[in-house]
Amino acid sequence: MSMMNREVAWRIFADEFNKSTLETGGGEERTPSYLITPLGAKINRVYVVGVLTEIENRGTPEEPMWRARVTDPTGTFFVSAGQYQPDVATKLAHMDPPAFVAVIGKANIYRPDEETVLTSIRGELVKEVDEEQRDYWILEATRSLKERLGAVNEAAQMEEVSTDELVDLGYDLKLADGIKAASEHYDSFQIEKYWRVLEDALMYVLPEYEEAGGLEEEEESTEEEEEIEDLVLEVLEELEDEADGENGVEYDTVMEETLEEKDISQEKFEEAVNSLRNSGKIYEPVLGNLKRIY
Amino acid sequence: MNNKKELAPHIEDINRALNEKLSEEQIEEELQTYLDVYGVPLGTAKRAIVKKHEGDPGDLYVSTEKKIEDIQGDEQGLNLKARLVSLNDKEIEVEGEPKKINYGILGDDTGTIPFTAWEIFSFDVEKGDTISVQNAYANMWNDKPQVNISSKSSVSLIDPDEVPDFDSEAQPCKLEDLREGMNNLKVKARILQVEKKMVNTKNGEKELFSGTLADETGKAQFSAWYDFGLEEDDIVEIEGGYVRSWRGIPQFSFDDSAELEFLDDDELPPAEELREKTVMTISALAKRGGAVDAVVDAVMIDIKSGSGLIFRCPECGRVVQKGACRVHGKVEGDPDLRVKGILDDGTGALTVIANKELTEELLGYDLEKALDIAKDKMNQDVIQDELEDELIAQPLRTVGNVTSDEYGLMLIADEIQFKAVDVEEEARELLDEVRV
Question: Distance of alpha carbon A242 from its chain centroid, rounded?
């Protein structure tokens, strides 16, 4: 009996998802397409919970194409919903960032040109949730990542990655398939890096590390750095008032203005912007733009 | 073309149909003439010879030699070579007269099959012997094919080399590993529940002892087609059972051809412990095809239309759409509540169905109130919207029977609970594991 099982919804962090540059299937009618991540997750559908930071309609009022950004502890997902996802589009249109949201959708790869690969999620369902549900999702995503890292660790020790051997070790056939495909496509599995991602994500939900992390940062930021950060905020505020735009101000413009006000290096400016972004004082409403969070 | 070895079973058929009126040599000669000189097909030739010698061609059939795995359960004139995996005898009553018959299990390198010899074997034979059976027939018995050896059949001992070696020992199997189609299994389990039922079968009303078995790995429903005197809490080892599935749920079945032994009470954990439900992943359920009383920890990721407040046709119970039943047309529907959703645990997805009582629990109010709310808002969909708000992205623990068909897995919920998770505690544990 062949079963038409519904595609599983992967819990996956933005970092791994967005590093994907491989897709399979989908060529023929009715065959599902999959995106294969650097760690071999073979993804058709995803389930992510994160913070909705921005929504905009890139289409027209008649033919909307909503684009949303949803961030998790590792990066940002791009979520889209157009006229073929009317429920999701309507829901997004009425949401007010920042907010915790759950998104279920199809993994999508878009190649605007030969070098660029953009991953996104075509929304099937969005829902506003609470912090507890987000934290639970992080837990699920770390478990999923840990399982993959375990399998990839095994695969890395094989002379040639073998699906059969991975299945014999107790891993799911689909994951084994994905790892095989990933090993042939990506330069390396980056195992070390993803163990760190896993560890960081777990620490993210633990209050003891939140406080420790915060203290460390405060100690590290010197008076000078604080001064620059304040300056950036001031400059940004002025520019925002001038621009009167919802999408903030271009990064380069903010940098030029700040460097004019004070003689600092470009690096110092970048450090200040990163620090402000990490502490939640500014964010990037669209790629390359900065905006204050009040 | 037709060598003597190939013709032998057919000569035997003709011989039997003619009650050995002719010698084998005579039959062979005639058969060769029909086949080789006149080119008549084998079946026609056999009938013609029997008729010519005033026999009944009805006693004749084209016999076929089959491997055990190929036996469908409707064969006539069945020939096979097999080893006696088990051999028993018992007394039955035929027309008021006691009669002794043999039964047991036959095996070859392709599988095993139960058999009944309605005439006790006329020669010394024991378990492990290799026999050739001619002109038997197969039928379905307790839902599986069985070989019948009748007075018209012939059985002879043959050289063991004629049947390739195979493992005739019943294969030990844990309950979680039961899969549709398995045969000759050895299972050690505790009986959690057993009841006697009378069921109607093709062969008349029969006693069936059914219930639930458990071992350390899980639970399974069972059907015993024989009164072994099973009682709740017994620990038994059953050798020679088989698996039949009902809507994907594997059920362990056995009959009097199985060997059953009662074991000491310390062979398995106590019943309360075995009754404890273990969580199964959806991918494990998909591989198995279904399960009784399964516990699934998963997140609700969709609520399907047709959830919440619905109206059912009073005639057939189908959901009424726009005031009309698909079969009975315009009807006054009876209100009902249900949830039809998708649970996903990251390993797989399944459809979950919750009935009125469970849906009321989840909503926190009853059907009457749901009707009031819908009337108030002039929209019956509001209840579905509320269920979406309530359930989507929520980790849930669901208990119920899981079945499967061509549309995938379905869980009929007996219980749905919001799962309380101490994320911090679990994150700490995971972090410790990661840092080792």
Answer: 31
Domains of chain A: 9-129 (2.40.50.140), 137-214 (no CATH), 218-292 (1.10.10.10)
> Of the candidates A124, A127, A202, which has its C-beta nearest B430's C-beta?
A202
Q: How far apart are CA B375 and CA B371, in angstroms?
A: 6
Question: Is A8 within 8 Å of B347 when comparing Cβ atoms?
Answer: yes
Q: What is the pLDDT of residues B313-332, one digit of tens each?
A: 999 999 998 889 999 999 99
Per-residue pLDDT tens for B239-285? 989 888 777 788 899 988 888 999 999 999 998 888 877 789 999 89
Q: Does B347 touch chain A (CB under 8 A)?
A: yes
Helix (H) or strand (E) holding A3: none
Q: What is the CA radius of gyration of chain B?
A: 30
**A207 Cα to chain B: minimum distance (Å):** 8
pLDDT of residue A1: 40
B407/A3 touch (CB, cutoff 8 Å), yes or no? yes
Query: Is any Cβ of chain A less than 8 angstroms from the Cβ of B245?
Result: no
Q: Please tell me the predicted confidence (pLDDT) of residue A28.
A: 61
Judged against a pLDDT cut of 90, whether residue B93 lies above it is answered with no
Note whether A143 contacts B430, CB cutoff 8 Å: yes
For residue B291, give the CATH number of its domain. 2.40.50.140
Report chain A residues whose CB lies below 8 A from the CB of B388: 127
| Domain with B290 in it | 282-418
Burial of B234 per CB tally in 10 Å (0-12, 13-18, 19+): middle
Q: How far apart are CA A102 and CA A48, in angstroms?
A: 6
Question: Is the pLDDT reported for residue A135 higher than 80?
Answer: yes
Identify the residue among B423, B424, B425, B429 best suited for mutation to test binding to A, counting A beta carbons within 10 A and taking the highest.
Answer: B423
| Cβ neighbours, 10 Å, residue B40 | 16
Shortest Cα–Cα distance, A108 to chain B (Å): 19
